[in-house]
Design a protein that fits this description.
Largest sheet: none
Strand content: under 5%
Structural class: mainly alpha
Shape: globular
Number of strands: 0
């Protein structure tokens, strides 16, 4: 395993994470709702909690779940599963964008709540809302775990850089989102959102295809 492979793994994790969070999701909709109802500070607290949950899940997977899969001999199947998953996610993004939505709007409501998530505050909402989303767990147990499997070849350094890439990919969307919400604007117009989803969707399909091809070649 050379340095270029590590760089490619980390860069891919950053792009894939960014592409994933750009999709209008319960978390981004909730952050938008908080910004409108309670101000951008509440939205920032909410998104900070989302990132904290990501860190906890990453550590659980890296230190517990992945070693367990490795002991069972199942870790080698993570790469083809993640490759197929990325291709599916990417195709869904492209199809969704070409049909004209969904779009992130500053007035969007958080499902099941009229005050922006939960009466107990934005931080708790930031932990509970992603945890209640099945897509969150599907992504982490397939794509996320596959990246962890690849990064473990470089030990603690690889896992540390991977965690930074995951958080950086999310922050690369959340920070512009908060900036736009603080000024009552959209980060992208609806047309720009559609174009971004199409481009990022094709990028995810490409990453998935390469990962699937390499894993199949390795099995051969």
């Amino acid at each position: 395993m050379n340095v270029l492979s590590l760089v490619a793994t980390v860069a891919s994790a950053f792009v894939v994470t960014f592409a994933t969070v750009v999709i209008p999701s319960p978390s981004t909709v909730a952050a938008s709702r908080y910004a409108v109802r309670r101000g951008t500070r509440a939205a920032a607290v909410f998104l900070s909690a989302v990132l904290c949950l990501d860190i906890v899940v990453f550590l659980v997977l890296a230190l517990g779940f992945h070693p367990f899969l490795h002991a069972l001999g199942a870790a080698r199947y993570l790469a083809p599963l993640a490759g197929a998953g990325l291709m599916i996610f990417g195709l869904v993004m492209v199809v969704t964008a070409r049909r004209g939505g969904p779009h992130l709007r500053s007035t969007a409501a958080v499902p099941g709540s009229e005050d922006g998530g939960t009466a107990r505050g934005p931080f708790l909402a930031g932990l509970l809302l992603p945890a209640a989303n099945p897509g969150f767990w599907i992504w982490w147990t397939t794509v996320g775990t596959s990246f962890i499997h690849a990064a473990r070849h470089w030990g603690g350094v690889g896992l540390g850089l991977l965690l930074i890439a995951f958080l950086g990919g999310a922050a690369a969307w959340y920070l512009p989102l908060l900036w736009a919400l603080s000024r009552g604007r959209q980060v992208f117009s609806e047309q720009a959102q559609d174009l971004a989803l199409v481009l990022l969707g094709f990028a995810m399909v490409g990453f998935g295809a390469v990962l699937l091809w390499r894993s199949v070649a390795a099995f051969g």
